[in-house]
Amino acid sequence: MFGRRATKDSGAGTEQADENIAASKAKANAAARRARADAGKPVFTATASMDDETELGERSHKHQDRYGFRTDDPSSPLKWDAIQEYLSHQYAAILMHRSSRWMHIYVRDLPVLKGVPSDWRAPVWLDICGATVFRQQNPNLYAQLLVDSPAKANPILTALFPRTFTLNRPPMDPMPSIQKLRRVLVAYAAYDPEIGYCQGLNFIAAMLLLVLRDESDAFYALTQIIGKDAHLAPRYHVPSMAPLLTDLAVAEELVRLRYPEIHDLFVRNGVTLSLIATKWFICMFIDSTPPETTMRIWDSFLYEGSKVLFRVTLALIQIHHQELLRAKDMASFFNGVKNSSLAAVDCHHLMDVAFNKLGTFRRSLINALREELAAPSTH
Amino acid sequence: MASYNYSYIFKYIIIGDMGVGKSCLLHQFTEKKFLPDCPHTIGVEFGTRIIEVNGQKIKLQIWDTAGQERFRAVTRSYYRGAAGALMVYDVTRRSTYNHLSSWLTDARNLTNPNTTIFLIGNKSDLESQRDVTYEEAKKFADDNGLTFLEASAKTGANVEESFIETAKTIFQNIQNGSLDLNAAESGVQQKTQPAPAVDLGDKPAANSGCGC
User: Fold this and answer.
1) Residue A350 DSSP symbol
2) ipTM of the complex
3) Which CDD domains does this entry report, sorted A to Z (chain B) (predicted)?
4) Does some domain include residue B212?
5) Could you report the per-residue pLDDT of A170-183, keeping only the tens digit for each?
6) Which of A176, A250, A355, B15 sits between 20 and 30 A of A3, alpha carbons compared?
């Protein structure tokens, strides 16, 4: 199961894929060794390994979920009761099982598709996306960028930071995290002037900060996710947005091929999937799905790349297929598609549909469609 | 669902620079509430409300677009078939006013000639931070044949008026014949008869040429 899924976007051929697998395994092994050796950075301890079971739902009486998202925000469209219910019962059993196997499997096989236990997320994410290696090669990059591009940053950034995270109030203590977020994005804009700042990057950087905690780690991870040499996804955030338009067209075509009756409904209602999926792809499902679901998608996305975005998109359509067919007008159809991601509380089921029930999903098909449907890169 | 409780659907778009308050205007209009720190719009969002103009119930279908320049690559395709375009700037930030001609060019090029374009100077409650005078914007609006109001998504001032005045103009254009309902992409759909029973195999006639 491992080899079939482990290719990255840049590696179309199998040789390349094998190299990627080998590289990923090496990275994983190194991470596991480091995690065990690095006593100063308590990544995995006997007690902490039980976090999944003990922490879930524990903070609910403080009106926060385990990640610090507010669960009592009346403007949040999420069904927090259902989320808490799922996490503390059904999902807790899944996590218990996962935790018991994780330590042992991680070193051997990197089963990120089953979800990464939360204590492992920071080192695992950094490793599988390539940030650990990139940081070793460029240890001073982040600090240098901050020195070179002090607060003269884009004034728009300053105004927009409170507007990160729509489903929830900003997690963690607002001020320190907003300053960290600003620094990460300012450094990123200096590192990658072609993209600079694009709306949506604030969500990605905030999620990385939330999981990785350390702002320089968040920066290095960002370079591996959207940077010039990143292999996880095409450059969706460049000013022309051509790579985004291409992948949205590919997603629509995949829907047409797999669910022609749903595609008909898009056409008949005069709307397109890309209208909704723009946010899914630009933010890689951050802020479109409940937090635990976002984490599960990212566990896979950081390893497999943009193919995961297509899989999750199709899984959402698949799960809501019958309901969408019953939509009586444009608004209910549009909202049905849009809310399918918000309703993805059962993250285990979503990932099961995306990776098992959807069946074979060839990267070569995506690449062929990308070529066929490529959007012009001028704007 | 035996019959529609409105006679027309009008499609609107809301355009303008990022941070001018497009989503907050929409939220204030549909929910009658101010949403502080309203989230970024990535791509396009959608809201509806039924209003009454000259005794006719009209359903407004409002598409709220991302303001950042590069997102126009995505949002442009939703300009098509809009009956009304609300073009928004922020009275406290001159740069957002200076960009209006570029937004106007896009709106004129990508909508139909009868699209009603309404100019809104938002954040009129922040008088002490004002950077664009009413008179200057009014002249710009007059020069370009736009209706203009200053509004505040925060206090709600002139928000209803902006959306409803736009609908009145569109309705007038329908009545005097300058807006052809049968034209493709007029942005207006007339609901003259009860909705057909849901039959997905059969395309309802009322939806043809729909601007939704």
Assistant:
1) H
2) 0.83
3) Rab14 (cd04122)
4) no
5) 444 444 567 788 88
6) A250
